[in-house]
Description:
The protein is mainly α and 430 residues long. It has helices at residues 17-27, 36-45, 54-66, 84-91, 95-107, 140-144, 146-183, 189-206, 214-231, 242-246, 269-277, 288-297, 299-307, 317-323, 326-329, 337-351, 355-365, 367-382, 389-401, 407-429; strands at residues 79-80, 112-114, 122-125, 131-138. The chain folds into three domains: 17-144, Arc Repressor Mutant, subunit A (Orthogonal Bundle), CATH 1.10.10; 159-231; 237-429, no CATH class.
Amino acid sequence: xxxxxxxxRPIGRRITPQRIEFRRRAQSAEIGTVTRAQLAVLVxxxxxxxxxxxxxxxxxxxxxxxxxxxxxxxxxxxIVFKSNRQLAFEIGRSVGRVSRMLSRLFDVGLxxxxxSGNYKRYPIRNADGEITDACGVDLRxxxxxxxxxxxxxxxxxxxxxxxxxxxxxxxGALRNTRYALAAxxxxxxxxxxxxxGRIERISxxxxxxxxxxxxxxxxxxxxxxxxxxxxxxxxxxxxSEPAARKTTCVYVENGMHKQITLSYQxxxxxxxxCLAHAEEPNFSKAGASxxxxxxxxxxxxxxxxxxxxxxKALVALQEVLRAAPALRELGYKPNTWADLxxxxxxxxxxxxxxxxxxxxxxxxMGEQQAAVAVAITLEKTNRQDVSSPGGYLRAMTERAxxxxxxxxxSVFGLAARNSLEAKHRDIGQT
Length: 430
């Protein structure tokens, strides 16, 4: 008969690479650099970081207070050799609960253990009665990690204060925006409904403000404050000067892209869709101002026409940012195309573009070209040339499906328009 080897269940403390590493680090502790009082304060503050809970903090504080104060001096050895039964009695928990909590504290690197052969905890003394070694709970790892854990507590406190400040500012901005909307007497019914819908979209995107990340609250606050500026008729910088509004580029973007010629108040959504279909220039009825605009562009129009005659010509990201300064006004400055693509859903929600319209644009154009189209739509909405951004984007999607969309021409047209407005504004200031 073959010998049967019975493999017994492992008995003893669980060993992991992390626990071995913590034991090694504990042996390199410089005793005397941290006092027992400092460790006690640190342990009480660790609960705010989420590393340990309140009961584990209570047990760890009991271990620290058990070690004599002189054991944290240079010649001391902060090792506690109380039994689990005694610790359970002191903190009011069961022995099994104490055992599990000690294992948890070992896993997170707040204690280590020096075990004897029978897992009993006791000190080892010399002939003079001095403790030379001990088998028990070793607290030296706390001395090694004191600076790290103290910095973690400071960071969590700073983040908590920043989150509370962001929450207060967001709630104040939301209240002020709704009050500004109610006080805007000169705002039309359609525009009032559009702004109210924008405010509700921002509020629904944040959802529960008390649980939202501070970065999201800061973004939402910026959008709300920007909406307040628009309601109070504080125009963006590139439209703040009267000379900028009187310049020729209000009526035409450039020789490659026909721009809307009617005022914002009298424009309807179906006209805006026609605007998205109108990509060819038409200067038959242009006045002297348009002729002056063509003359100011000069040879640049012909060179750009030759370079971007293809329908799907790609443009640089910097040109898109020049064409759509509304991105910078909203606090966005994408450094790569991937950043702009990730921002597109947020821009659509702010501009009032439905998810279906954005998804169809991505299907027909691709993610990068759809992001450019959304940026163009947002810029024209910000300029009050478009009052139905969703319809405008859908019209661009239809032209892209038919192979008649010239995104590059639109980008360079808006960029030229912005540069001319800036030049006229500088001349007006001088």
